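Tokens as discussed.
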């Protein structure tokens, strides 16, 4: 047994759903890689699944959700995904008092942390701006992606052409812009807009239309098959802390059309098509281009695969463990 023991807060993994649970899936994949990587660095990683587990002796604890509990007084290393609640409280279904309490506790955890990991430069800048943390106490570690299997059962008919939207259905995802394209007849003919994700808050109404298919929440395996068969993945979000589904799509060559807001411009970069989330005309043009031009799709596909290789869990886990070991 190693003398250098790091705990990993895995309390958020209970009842892991399919789509719309990016932080939970990122936590699971990071944990699996930390277990493999830690042995090469003389470190032992142990799971902390209940509050009682935190009584175990550890040199440090990683908090993959970014939230450090108010009762924790050890060496904390949070992994922060976004700080949208500070800039866009209207995107969250919380009463004012509850929001003020959670944000105060969250900032307290960041300020007491030994070191902070951010999933993007965009998130790092938000941490500096809201928490006043010196830049040298924050490291950017991008998320990675699991290898996709080839033997998943088909979810859509193989010959059916569709554009895919993934994630929790809420105002921040900016789906109404896509719905307007469908309603106005500006979505490609004989092409579906497929939406896979659980209903969130905000009363986003999915239109009843022959070109719109709402699958609701799907399993992780079905989500991956949907990505593989899609003409392209659409992410018109008003902002993203990372944009996990874009990386998943690029890694298997599915073209991505994404918003240029938040961290998506970092993650997608030139591996996809980046557009102003409010420019409906530009989205119409890009969608029609990929629906009709196989050469364009192939070009974007190849660029996406190359871009996705810049983000790996192996590199992220190694950077996190090395930073903690040098800090404690």
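Sequence:
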């Amino acid at each position: 047994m190693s003398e250098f023991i790091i705990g990993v807060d895995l309390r958020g993994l209970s009842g892991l759903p399919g789509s719309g649970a990016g932080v939970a899936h990122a936590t699971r994949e990071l944990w699996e890689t930390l277990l493999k990587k830690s042995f090469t660095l003389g470190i032992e990683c142990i799971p902390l699944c209940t509050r009682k587990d935190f009584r175990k002796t550890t040199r440090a604890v990683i908090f993959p959700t970014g939230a450090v509990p108010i009762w924790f007084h050890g060496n904390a290393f949070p992994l922060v995904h976004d700080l949208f609640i500070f800039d866009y409280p209207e995107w969250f279904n919380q009463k004012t008092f509850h929001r003020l309490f959670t944000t105060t506790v969250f900032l307290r955890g960041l300020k007491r942390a030994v070191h902070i990991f951010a999933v993007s430069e965009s998130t790092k800048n938000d941490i500096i701006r809201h928490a006043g943390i010196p830049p040298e106490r924050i490291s950017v570690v991008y998320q990675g992606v699991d290898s996709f299997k080839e033997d998943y059962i088909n979810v859509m008919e193989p010959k059916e052409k569709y554009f895919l939207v993934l994630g929790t259905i809420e105002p921040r995802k900016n789906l109404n812009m896509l719905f307007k394209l469908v309603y106005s007849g500006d979505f490609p003919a004989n092409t579906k807009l497929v939406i896979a994700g659980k209903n969130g808050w905000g009363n986003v109404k999915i239109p009843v239309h022959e070109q719109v298919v709402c699958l609701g929440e799907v399993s992780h395996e079905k989500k991956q098959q949907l990505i593989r068969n899609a003409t392209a993945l659409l992410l018109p979000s008003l902002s993203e802390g990372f944009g996990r589904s874009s990386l998943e799509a690029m890694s298997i060559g599915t073209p991505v059309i994404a918003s240029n807001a938040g961290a998506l411009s970092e993650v997608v970069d030139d591996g996809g098509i980046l557009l102003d989330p409010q420019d409906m005309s530009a989205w119409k043009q890009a969608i029609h281009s990929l629906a009709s031009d196989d050469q364009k799709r192939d070009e974007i596909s190849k660029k996406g695969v190359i871009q996705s290789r810049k983000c790996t869990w192996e590199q992220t886990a190694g950077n996190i463990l090395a930073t903690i070991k040098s800090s404690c």
